[in-house]
Structure formats: C-alpha cells, structure tokens
C-alpha cells in the first residue's frame, strides 16, 4: 500500500510536473509570511446513518508566521459529534446512538489544537519549488471520543507530528504528508470509565491545479483552483475499561456493524475533490467533499462536505511619512 | 560643556547624514523564485511595503518580479529587501538596479554610496559613465547557483582589499 502510494506520487511528478499548493485539507510545506495573521473558519458536515441527523463540525483557526519558515496555528473546534460524558448505560449508547430515537448530541466545545510547522528544506527556482517541512501538534479534547480512529482536530487529547514534502511547478502542485497521531487515554473518574483510541498513521497525497486565470492580469483576478486529495490512514483498535475491567466490543457486531467497526482497527483511503476561489489575492473559499475509495472511515459518514473561509491580515510597521 | 560636545557631534552627524542621504537608488527590479500564486505575490508586496525606505511596489505576477520604488530621503538597504522576500517564504533570484556613474567617484573597483562600500567584479572598470544597470552578487541577493559561481571572486576580492566589512559586490 505504502509502496503503491510512493509510486503514484513519483509517477505523477513525471506526468504533470507541478501551482497551487493552498490545499483545503492538507497543510503545504510552505508557510504564512512573517508577522502575518491568518484566520480560517472550517466546517465539515455529513448525514448520520441511519438517523438521518445532520452532524456538524466547525472550527476557528488563527495562523501566525513567527518567521518566514515557522508557522504557529491555534484551532478551537465545536461539534455535535459527542456527548458531554459517556452515559451510564453504555450498551444502549453504543448500540443505539446512530438511531433516530436516541437522544441527539448537543453542540459542545470539542477541543483546542496547537500546531507548529518548520520549513527545513527549500529549493526555489523560477516558478517552481521543492520544500520539506516538519510539524508537531497537540490537542486537548473536552469530550469523550468513542471511536478507535483518533483525531487531533478536537476529538482526542493527544499529540502527533510528521513531515511534508511539497512540489510546485507553474500551475501544478503536489504534496505528500506523513503524520503520526498518538491519542492519550480518556478518563472519567466519576464513572470509572477509560477509553483509549488507537494510534494512527497518515500517508496523504494532495494535488492542485490552477484552472483560472492561465495568466494573471491584476491582483483582482478571481483565481479558481482545483484540488484532489487522498487521505490514507491506518489506526489501531480502541480499548475501553469500565470499573478497571476491559470492556468487550464484540457484542456490538450483532447490532450495528458500523459501530463495531468504528471500535476496531482499520485502514482506509478517501478522495477529497475540492474547488477553491481566491478573491483579491487574499479572500479564500474552499468547497469540497470526501468519498471513500478503499474501505472507509467509521468516524464519519459519506458524502462528507467541507467548507473553509480564510483571510490574511498584514501588519504595517511603517512610520507615517510627513 | 558636555551639551556643547553633544551639539557639535549632532551637527557633524547631521552634516554627514545630510551628505549621505543623496539617495542614488530610485528603483530596483527584484526577481523572486519559488513563487507562482497571486496570493503569495500579494504577501511579498505587503511585506516589502513594511520597509520605511520603500515608496511603492509593482508586482509582475507572471514574471514573478517586483519593481520596488525607493523614497528619496531614506537610505536604501538591499539586505532588508532580501530579508523581506525570505520572510514572505520565497527566495531572491536577482536584484537589478541602475546607477548614474557620472555622480560616483571610483577608487579602483570600489565606490561608496550612503556610506556603504560597493565593489565591481568581473568587468573592466575604466571609464564608467552615465546610467548603468547593476546586479548584486552577494549571498541572498542572488540565487544560490549564481552566488556559488561568484563566491570565489568575492572572497578573492575581499582578501586583496583586506575587506572585513559587509561590502556589496556587484557586476554590470
């Protein structure tokens, strides 16, 4: 699987050569300019099956260029993906919480994430570059995540990191991200429940193409960029204890296969096509969706739709001239 | 007495700063590598405009060049221009500007502008006159490839002239 991905990546370099690396899902190896603040609103939504309830996730992200090579990001996420605490009747919860008659989840502050990215290699040439960045992130989650697949975008308390390689050639861009995710144990002392999501590895591939304009006239030109991103993940099974005794998930497979699978180990690939509009060379909107191509993620349903809105704020330190 | 000294020093300083602020650089063309998107170009322009000696910036989005216009009452610092390009996440391809050699007194292959020393490399330096376009050869003022070709000549030149300061090296 890994070999295949590397092969596809290398092949694609030869076929298309590579502009647009402002990936909606992945982070590029490039950075936000020094002393520049970026604000991004993120949204993800999908219909839960079988309840047909809308599940939403939204976040605000502040991005800041500490240097021309270092980016710091802080993200706070809100969602209706979790309960405030695990309910007392766990069996009923796991079997029925995707059902229409089960009490819906409230909107809660899900978690906060801190992310630091350092560019370590930059080979720049005329309208092309190859860049490598290393990143680390940590998340403090405030809600009980009930799936084996971990997320540092709010769901789990944990940490992770990895490396990004981004290539840009004129109107094409390609990027590979390896990310390691290590969730920490969730503890509910009052109810004596612990929940441990699995550790995960990502091997994500992203491609971008500037559709319009083929040639720039002014900053006011509307840019239209197309992206295809592949999220490739593997993760370990979840472990749960109740009053210090291991909790057995196998019972759930007779009720809801999705619930059972969401607690087991797994690996999947999903495709995330998206379109991006950039207005006045600053205001950026991304709209896209995710579909499974190999297995699926049991942490969300498909199709998943996402929307990002972003703006940069530049600070002028220039003294006023008389 | 002390205040008298300060006043004299201040006067001397003002005299020389007035003398040196005869700005010679009106504009420069800065080639930027690794850049293709207009949002990124916008970032470069915004960062360049933060420099107090920069009057305005004109970006060529297709050639990835910035024409930087300088204020005539401020000292131009090309190292700061380069720093802003790197801070915005890109690299300098080259910096080209023009100088009027009629107003410059050459000492061998060297001359001063605004108290900064410049060495001319790789050219017959006799009878330079009129407007000439110059390119910078120093690290981060030119792309790595060309710098590696010039670095030997820069070192040899500095050895010959016992140059220890951060002088600029240019070619015509």
Q: Can you characterise this structure?
A:
The complex is a heterodimer of chains A (322) and B (172). Chain A has helices spanning 2-16, 90-96, 257-261; strands at residues 36-47, 54-65, 70-79, 108-125, 128-141, 158-169, 172-183, 186-188, 193-196, 200-212, 223-235, 239-242, 245-246, 266-279, 283-294, 304-314. Chain A has 322 residues and is mainly beta. In chain A, strand 6 (158-169) and strand 7 form a beta hairpin. Chain B is an alpha+beta fold. Chain B has a single domain (23-171), classed as Alpha-Beta Plaits, CATH 3.30.70.100. Mean pLDDT of chain B is 86; it is low at 14-21. Chain A binds chain B through residues 19-22, 30-36, 65, 67-69, 119, 122, 124-129, 131, 168, 170-171, 210, 215-219, 221, 223, 278, 281-282, 284, 312, 314-319, 321, and chain B through 31, 33-39, 41-44, 46-47, 49-52, 59, 61-62, 64, 71, 86-91, 93, 143.
SSE blueprint and pairings:
The complex is a heterodimer of chains A (322) and B (172).
Chain A (H helix, E strand, L loop, with lengths): L1 H15 L19 E12 L6 E12 L4 E10 L10 H7 L11 E18 L2 E14 L16 E12 L2 E12 L2 E3 L4 E4 L3 E13 L10 E13 L3 E4 L2 E2 L10 H5 L4 E14 L3 E12 L9 E11 L8
Antiparallel strand pairs in A: 1-2, 1-16, 2-3, 3-4, 4-5, 5-6, 6-7, 7-10, 8-9, 9-12, 10-11, 11-14, 12-13, 14-15, 15-16
Chain B lengths: L1 H19 L6 E7 L4 H11 L5 E7 L4 E6 L7 H10 L3 E10 L9 E4 L2 E5 L10 E6 L7 H17 L7 E4 L1
Parallel strand pairs in B: 6-8
Antiparallel strand pairs in B: 1-3, 1-4, 2-3, 4-7, 5-6, 7-8
Short synopsis of the structure:
The complex is a heterodimer of chains A (322) and B (172). With 322 residues, chain A is mainly beta.
Features:
heterodimer, A: 322 residues, mainly beta, Porin, twelve-stranded antiparallel barrel, four-stranded antiparallel sheet, 16 strands, 8% helix, B: 172 residues, alpha+beta, Alpha-Beta Plaits, eight-stranded mixed sheet, 4 helices
